[in-house]
Structure formats: structure tokens, C-alpha cells
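Thread: DNA binding domain-containing protein, excisionase family, structure

OP (GT): Posting the sequence first so everyone is looking at the same thing. Length is 76 residues per the record. Can we get the C-alpha cells written out before standup tomorrow? I want them in the notebook alongside the other entries.
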Amino acid sequence: MYLTVKETADYLSVKESVIETLILHNRIRAIHDGEQYLINKEQFVSHLEEMEKYKQMIQEYLADPLPEDIDVKDED
């Protein structure tokens, strides 16, 4: 399924100018049909899956309680 720049920006929750910059720097694969760029939606699936994994890992890390402070005394 192909998306326009605006649809891709909405899908990824970024500004259209970011998508256009990524296209111009060949960071996103796109085709130009003579009027507009069309972007294949499937190229973002693995990226979004990885982002969800990282979000979950961060939430788990933040949910762990801090360990109690160990009172270390200098024994000279």
C-alpha cells in the first residue's frame, strides 16, 4: 500500500517536512509519479515494531523500584 507524504507523516506522527527531507536524503524509499511522492507503507513495519519493544523495555525499567541505599561507613 502506497501513501502520500501527508499520509506518511500522519502515520508516523511527524511533520511533512521531515518526511520530505528523509526522501531527499534517501532515508525513505519513495517513487515519484510525476506529481507527488508515493511511499510504501510496509518499509516502516519493522521500525514501528522495534520502537514498541523499546517503549516496553523503558516502561519496565522505570517501573522497577530503586534499591535501598547501602550505608557504607569508612572503616579505618
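GT: Both are above now. Quick notes for whoever picks this up: The chain is about 45% helix and 10% strand. The mean pLDDT is 88.
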